[in-house]
Write a sequence for this structure.
């Protein structure tokens, strides 16, 4: 896997997480998403973790050993 592939994966995860976070916040604030605030909270947490935690874990895992 090349560095370009890794950057593309990280960028996709961050963008996907941000979109999921936005949909979750929309549902949480009373948007027209079936399930209401409960589903919105779950989507917001999953989106935030997808945008922040997962890329950080992958960067640490892909780091070249010293």
């Amino acid at each position: 896997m090349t560095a370009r592939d890794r950057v593309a994966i990280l960028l996709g995860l961050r963008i996907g997480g941000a979109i999921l976070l936005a949909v979750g916040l929309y549902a949480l604030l009373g948007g027209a998403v079936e399930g209401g605030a409960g589903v919105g909270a779950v989507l917001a947490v999953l989106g935030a973790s997808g945008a922040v935690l997962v890329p950080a874990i992958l960067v640490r895992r892909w780091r070249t050993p010293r």
